[in-house]
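Posting this for the archive.
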Amino acid sequence: SYVLIIVCAALVANALRPLRDSFFTSLTGAAPPVSDLQREREQKMSMYRNYKNLGMIAAVYVLLLVLRPMRAALFLALVASVSGTVFLAFVFMKMMYAFRAIGSSSAAAIMTMFTVVTVLMTFSSVFAIGIGQDVLSGIADASAFVVDAVKNDPKHQEFVMEKLQLAQDKALELSRANKASIDAAAAKVTELTGVDCSEYVAAAMAALEQDQLGKGGSSESVQSDDADAAASGEDSTCEIGEDGVEKCTAGAATAAAPAIDMDMLKEKAMEGFELLKPYIPKSAGEAKELVAQARAQLETVDVEKYREIASDAAQKVASGLASMASSLGGALGSIKTSVSFALLVFLLVSMECSAVSLVTDLLPFPRRVLNETVELDIRMALSAMVWGVIRFFALHLLFVWMAFSALGLNFEYLASLLAGLSAALPFLPPPFVIPFLFAAPQLIARREWAQLVALPLAHVLLGNDRNDYLQSIRQHMTVGVSILNDELLTMASVLGAAVFGQKGIIVAPLLITFSLVLYDIFALINKQDQMTRERLIIRDDEYHWDEPSSTA
């Protein structure tokens, strides 16, 4: 795992070298100590532009500015805040370097790491909050859509009312089925307190039946109510009101619940005290007898059962604490790994030479120019891979976020994040597929057919010029071209994950590309040796001297 961390840190540090060199130049006013060939390669790599994509991003931002000016202003404010923070840090570091408080390489490395950490923290916090808002707003809008659909469609209203009526009938049926249990509980309460609760229960049941009649209950419930009223001998009166609705009134027995007699409650409490009085010990001997009786009762209790319950509870608590400790240990381990990774990247960025040069200088080439060629090609390929991922991730993320925000669609943060990942990782679907899946249901529900056609079409036109970008890098390379092969790296990642697990996603592409780079190096050496031999043969043919003929 430590070797994997070192390798990943070397890859990241190599990709950050151009940013570090730009800060070095801004701080010192002089170019970093690199060869002319390396400077030429870096300039060629940074010259790649796709003005069609840049123009489409600008057009979408203008649309956002017209339709949602507050969102456009928020985006500009966010970019300005990040840029201002980096600029203030650069001014402070410039002053520290002017007063000789820090070296040029260390200052450039600190500014590089500060910029990367600031951008990553801002991006993570904004999208974490945004995705949470996407989920909440999506739930709210879906609920509102369902409510509106029910309100505007009589069929849906009838369906909902039917289900509510069925639920109400079921509740009334259960209450009738459990009437005996309810009466028994009321009688028990009456026996203990002396308050006749049956009248309150009868009043509540009559009110429930009356509510069912008033809402147009089923014929079965009406017949049951009539039967109960006839059996109890209570009178009930029904009359038709001015609005034509029949209103029924319960009999006198259930019309009004009687008031609670407080004096009677006090008397019943005193009677209960008199009943408990014989059980209150009057002396120490009686107390000992009660304790002995309690012990005798406890001896009959199944102690083993409660001991097993306590043991199971203790085991559950212990397993919970162990899982919490394991989670805490994992979190601390992740923090330790992240800090170690960041410190290692800072150390490699602050060095005058790159991590790739430390390896290529050890290769025993017959000529020094081969070491430099291999170093520059590998550095160029690795930097192109990392910055290509960042470039196309940011391109599609910005396009989808601004388009969704301009059209007022939900899930703008989640859709834009997935679109950026689709553009950056070659084994995922095309970048326009996932945003269209998010946008299509919303636009169809709003019946915005023009936007439904225009959004995916514009995203397809935006395209993914990743192959063009990589091809512009390949044409300046001699070795290491296999590093820029997306199909090869995708296959290696899948096979590595199947064989080595998560680590294989990084280890397998590194092993395969390292083998191919070695093959390219030896092929280059063989080619140059062959060219040297050909030049020697040609030169020997040009300066060939005929031997003098011998005379007899």
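DSSP finds 22 helices and two strands in the chain. Residues 104-152 form the longest helix (49 residues).
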